[in-house]
Structures are given as C-alpha cells and as structure tokens.
Design a protein that fits this description.
Keywords: Calcium, Glycoprotein, Hydrolase, Metal-binding, Metalloprotease, Protease, Signal, Zinc, Zymogen. GO terms for molecular function: metalloendopeptidase activity; zinc ion binding. Helices cover about 35% and strands about 10% of the residues. The protein is built from 9 helices and 9 strands. The strands form 3 sheets. A 5-stranded mixed sheet has the order 4-3-5-7-6, covered by helices on one side. Helix 5 (about 175-190) links the parallel strand 3 and strand 4 (about 195-200). Helix 1 runs antiparallel to helix 9. It is globular, with a radius of gyration of 23 Å. The protein binds zinc ion (2 copies). One zinc ion binds next to helix 6.
Length: about 350
C-alpha cells in the first residue's frame, strides 16, 4: 500500500516538476486583429497599410498586394518579376514561397498565409539591412553572416575606432547621452570578443562612422521617416553606420512617453553586430533579430549573438558562457513573472497537490 502511495507521490511530483521546469518564454499572444502603431507625423513608411492583407493566402487577389511584394523583394524574399514590368496583386505560388521563407527567417509559425503573426511582424519597425545578404552555415544555429563571411582584419590585439559625424547628428538627445549609449553598446560586444573599441574625434579616419540621416542620403538605401526602417549598417570593413534621423529616438522611456519612441541603445547594439559582420538571426530574443517594436529595450547579447560573433573573432579570454547563462536565466525568470505566465504555471501544480493530498 505504501509502495503504491509512493508511486503516486513520485508521479505527481514529476508532473509538478515538469510544469515548474517549463522554460519561461513570454506568454504567446495571438492577436484577434493586427495592432498597428501609426503616427500623425509626416512619413513615407506605409507598411501599416499592409494590415489590410490579413488572412490573404494562395489564390487571393487583393488590390495593392504588389506593394507588399515590393517589401518582400526589398528584404530579399522575392525576386523581381521576369515577364512583367511590375508585380501583380495576385497571391501566387511564388509569393507563397516568399511568405514561407519570411516566416522561417523571422521565427514565425510557417503557414504560407498572411496570418496575424506574419502581418504584425511585417508592419513592425525593423533594420534596413536585407535578410538575403546573410547566409546561415549551420542548421542548428540561427545567427548568420554577410555573404563571403567578411570580418575586420587587423593586428592583435584588435582595436577599432568609431566617430560621430559632426554634420549628421540629432538635437533631441545630447551628444553626451549619445556617446554614453554607444560606449555601453560597444562594450557589450567587446566583452565577448578580443576586440576593443575606442571613440575618436577624427571622424574622417574612424573605422566606424556613425551618423543620423534623413531620407535619401546617397548610399542607395533611403530612410523612410518615422518607424518603418530604423537604421542600417554596412558589412566589414566598410564601417558606415546610419540611423534614421526622423525616428523618435529615446534613451529613457520614463522621460519619453511617445508611442513611437525607439530605444537608441537597442538599435546601436544591433547595428554594431552588422558592423562586425553578423547578419540577421531568426531567434526573436537575439539582438540580431531584424525587428524592434517601439518602446522595447533589447540590449543584452544572447547566446546566439555571442556564438555568431565569436565564430568570426574568437572569444574574449575573460568571457565565460556560464555568466551569460546565469544572466539569461535571471532575465527569463523576470520576463516570466512580467508576462503573467507565472499565475497559471504555479497555480496548476498547487491545485494538483491539494487534490492529491485532499483525496
Ligand atoms: Zn539589422
Ligand atoms: Zn545609409
């Protein structure tokens, strides 16, 4: 009898352990409809109009879908039409393949349809670097490089200098604050690879040239106003690092209540990854994921980011993965509590225990 009781006890404790052990990913929100953040400020980014294509699938014909196809073409998912001068408004098999590829790259459910997850991601702000310039080399890894795997080639120890364009800055954030933000962002990458970064006042000779630009600024990648594309940077050893001056850049959300505020530090950290040679990752939590929502801060390098950059430059001798794992665990737990996941996860085992001991 006692043996039977202990089997039951073990079984229930196993159930409880499984619930408690479940990774603390943020609760998955399946929106009823697509939330689109728009702004009354003048801008050319019309991605929010793409929300009208919600639920479109192969065989659909929706007026204006050619514009959405241009988006897929721009970010490397759909090649230009061969037989006609322009894209059509038909959801054909070519476009379905592009949607499938996009969903895979962005870590979305792979349905081939313009479901709410996919449309929400399409309309959210992102980095201007194309996803097609990157190439994955390993199926179990999610980070990527630029084609040809370029990296900075300097003597060891490697020091790269960075400078701010004296002519292309913003006046909504002080230069002192901008410098502090970038110093922190560079330090994050420097802590995991044997590369250090030093600010220089000699902008013209800096390895990494940082500036804020409006619209067409001469490199063939015009910015589009508030939201849409936030920034872009070039692969090694180019060093150009451009931010869209039209964004509502923020360094502290407590002092900026704009719905379209974009965290400068998160974007700076992401673009430094490109400057070093990383492409976009399909891991949503990674700094190198291409999208960043307004009022979201994402500055801590994740394992995927670290593995990617270390495969280019090697490891900083002072870096250990265990410290990174500890900080990820801590942030995951914090995230779990924030998203309300804890209530269900902790209360269910409690109910089971009460039922068991009460019977
Ligand atoms: Zn990017
Ligand atoms: Zn540019």
């Amino acid at each position: 009898m006692f043996r039977l009781f202990s089997y039951y006890l073990n079984f229930w404790f196993l159930c409880v352990a499984l619930f408690l052990w479940r990774p603390c990913f943020p609760a998955r929100i399946i929106p009823e409809s697509v939330t689109v953040i728009t702004t009354t400020e003048k801008h050319n980014a019309t991605w929010h109009d793409f929300s009208k294509f919600l639920h479109a699938e192969r065989g659909s014909h929706v007026s204006g879908m050619a514009e959405l196809k241009k988006f897929f073409n721009r970010f490397g998912y759909l090649s230009a039409p061969e037989t006609t001068p322009n894209f059509t408004d038909n959801f054909d098999s070519n476009f379905e393949s592009a949607v499938l590829l996009y969903q895979k790259q962005l870590g979305l459910p792979i349905t081939g349809k313009l479901d709410s997850d996919t449309i929400s991601t399409i309309v959210s702000p992102r980095c201007g670097v194309s996803d097609s310039t990157t190439k994955r080399i390993h199926v179990t890894r999610h980070f990527a490089y630029f084609n040809g795997k370029p990296r900075w080639l300097r003597g060891s120890p490697m020091t790269l200098t960075y400078g701010f364009s004296p002519y292309n800055m913003i006046d909504t954030i002080s230069l002192t604050e901008i410098r502090t933000v970038f110093e922190r962002s560079f330090t994050r990458w420097a802590s995991v690879i044997p590369v250090s970064f030093r600010e220089t006042e000699r902008y013209e000779s800096a390895d990494i040239k940082i500036g804020f630009y409006i619209g067409d600024h001469g490199d063939g990648e015009p910015f589009d106003g508030v939201l849409g594309v936030l920034a872009h940077a070039f692969s090694p050893q180019n060093g150009r690092f451009h931010l869209d001056a039209a964004e509502n850049w923020a360094v502290d959300f407590d002092h900026d209540d704009s719905r379209v505020a974009i965290d400068l530090e998160s974007v700076a950290t992401h673009e430094i990854g490109h400057v070093l040679g990383l492409g976009h990752s399909s891991v949503k939590e990674a700094v190198m994921y291409p999208n960043l929502s307004p009022r979201r801060k994402k500055v801590d390098l994740k394992i995927d980011d670290v593995e990617g950059v270390q495969s280019l430059y090697g490891s900083n001798p002072n870096f250990t993965f265990s410290s990174l794992l500890q900080s990820e665990d801590a942030s995951n737990v914090a995230l779990g509590f924030q998203t309300g996941f804890s209530k269900w996860t902790f209360s269910l085992p409690l109910v089971l225990l009460i039922l068991f001991f009460g019977s």
